[in-house]
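Good morning,

Attaching, inline, the backbone tokens for the sequence recovery test we're adding to the shared suite. The designed sequence is right after.
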């Protein structure tokens, strides 16, 4: 069937487009820049000739309705994922306003299903409860996470009205090929460059971008009604995450650990400084706060198809092959698979 994908030149979006194409679907992309399509899909074995494109923006109702026309289903993956305080205005416009526009247009056009790509952070903090699709929408004290929670409320309102909206919850997603090197891979790169010598306590659930893409292919079945689906993932404490990076690189990576509550004020200070400082500061309040929330999985969470070490190894290898870290920084992960 013909499926409209927003955010198809992003990390999760591009991998999902490739998986949908391999599954035999016709994929249409809503893009602001058609020139970005080849760069995003090329490393995954596709080109702009393999997909349809409509130029527009998720915040523009006219272009969204034009893109939805003739599509049987919609996958809304467009989102600004960043803890950079300089992007707050665009984040709110895309993550919340864009979700309202896309879901409204898709439901009005009779698309089934309409998949909204949320995030585990939309359910945080969980008050110590493990991740579950039955959790209420979170009330996080961080701007990006708050926009994902607000978008989650939009999607749940449509579900409550009986619309065939499917909500998916990717974990902290890693793996190869991120066209824009989002915050998750940027933090791994900063760790490998020695720019994150202090880590907070707590942890977060880690997933593989390829598992998320496979989940979206499975979710795009019509006639199933409203659903909520956790992506595959495994909880790692920050100590376990750094230990896994050490394992796959063979490097020492000296790191000190402090209670997350002690690191939060440092993150808040650097986020305030980031509004004035032109270069990206790797220590971000949002990243520290995510660890502080310490959202955990439970035995009912889908298991990843790949070991977490393989996911981190593939991410590190891709960073090296893309020229984003040196061979020394990649360590053993720079060796051929």
């Amino acid at each position: 069937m013909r499926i409209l994908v927003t955010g198809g030149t992003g990390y999760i979006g591009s991998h999902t487009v490739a998986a949908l194409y391999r599954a035999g679907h016709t994929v249409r992309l809503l893009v602001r820049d058609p020139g970005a399509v080849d760069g995003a899909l090329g490393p995954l074995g596709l080109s702009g000739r393999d997909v349809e494109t409509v130029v527009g923006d998720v915040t523009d109702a006219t272009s969204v309705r034009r893109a939805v026309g003739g599509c049987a289903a919609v996958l809304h993956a467009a989102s600004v994922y960043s803890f950079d305080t300089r992007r707050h205005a665009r984040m709110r416009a895309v993550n919340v306003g864009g979700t309202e526009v896309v879901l409204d247009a898709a439901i009005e056009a009779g698309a089934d299903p309409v998949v909204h790509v949320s995030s585990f952070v939309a359910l945080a903090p969980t008050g110590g409860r493990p991740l579950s699709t039955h959790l209420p929408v979170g009330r996080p004290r961080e701007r990006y996470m708050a926009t994902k929670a607000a978008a989650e409320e939009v999607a749940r309102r449509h579900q409550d009205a009986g619309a065939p909206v499917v909500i998916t919850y990717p974990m902290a997603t890693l793996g190869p090929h991120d066209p824009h090197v989002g915050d998750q891979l940027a933090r791994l790169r900063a760790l490998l460059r020695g720019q994150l010598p202090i880590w907070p306590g707590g942890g977060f659930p880690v997933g593989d971008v390829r598992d998320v893409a496979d989940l979206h292919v499975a979710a795009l079945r019509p006639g199933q009604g409203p659903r909520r689906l956790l992506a595959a993932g495994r909880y790692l404490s920050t100590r376990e995450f750094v230990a896994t990076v050490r394992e796959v690189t063979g490097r020492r990576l000296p790191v000190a650990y402090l209670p997350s509550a002690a690191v939060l004020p440092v993150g808040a200070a650097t986020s305030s400084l980031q509004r004035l400082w032109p270069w990206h500061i790797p220590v971000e309040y949002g990243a520290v706060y995510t660890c502080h929330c310490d959202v955990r999985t439970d035995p009912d969470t889908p298991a990843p198809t790949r070991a977490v070490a393989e996911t981190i190894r593939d991410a590190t290898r891709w960073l090296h092959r893309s020229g984003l870290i040196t061979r020394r920084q990649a360590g053993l992960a720079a060796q051929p698979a």
